[in-house]
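worker-3 :: picked Membrane-bound lytic murein transglycosylase B
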Amino acid sequence: MFCKSVVVFCVYLTCCNLVSAQESGATFSDYLSGLKRVALEANISPMTVAQHFPKIKPFKRAQGHNSVFENTNLEQYIPKKVPDILVSTGRIFYQANEKAFDHIATKYGVQPRFLIALWGLSSDFGERQGRYPVLSVLASSAFEASLSGQVDHYGELFYIDEFIAALKILERYPYRFEDLTSSQQGTMGHMQIRPSQFLAYAKDGSGDGHIDIWHDISDAMTTTANMLQDIGWQSDSTWGRQIRATKALSADNISLAVQKTFSEWQQLGIRRFEGGDLPNRDDMRVSLLAPDGTDGRMYLIYFNYRALKRVNQDDKYLLAATYLSERIK
Ligand SMILES: [Ca+2]
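worker-3 :: tokens ->
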């Protein structure tokens, strides 16, 4: 359990992860002092720290921006998240840039419809990227998490790692502080990737010698394709399929940890959504996903869905993305 009573910034550092603790009443400025020390310990140069830390300001996340999606089930969420205009815009962008998307698909083995769906859903095709300084967003998010004592699962450690990654981007690439803009969640550019993902996978897709995931969709999309390829994306496979159950299902079977062949699922009463038998093949092991329980939409998910989970953990979001990918093709 996170202890708040120790001296300000008692720092425990492991592989750039750290646990910090604060006295109650510590300010954002106090917290930044601690982050500065953490950055130096993570081998960020004193010059980078001196150059960028003075520009970091507390960032207050807007409340209620996602309220329209709160407490919605998939039946409500997917049509709201994927209105027809998003589908038609995706088709138009695909047709207008088919050659470029097909080139990325050939090189990285990721079908364009998935990249276009992630683009549409993550930033409304680049229109809603967020224009907040990523260092301010991430430092503030880490500070807020430290106050609430949340360390794991998008807690303080997560945001500090991303903060350090953003500083490394500034050290390795010729960006200015204000060039690194993000959403309120600290995700950046057309495809809304995290700084750590940028460090690992950023690519110059347009071939102009410069990586610009904020203004150049080719760079942004190539970066995400590179990430999915590295995770093991299967170019000859899809993400999964919506299914229906003809018998009551044991709750034990509804887990990504449970993987069975189509035949095994067939025996348990799972059928295609339209009612037909599942594919007659036993060379894949797939899992049952039911975010709204067995009364809601249910899916069999394949390896590529697991790859998408590395990009974004939110099942509802990903199921909206896969739905959009089906509508675009
Ligand atoms: Ca470029």
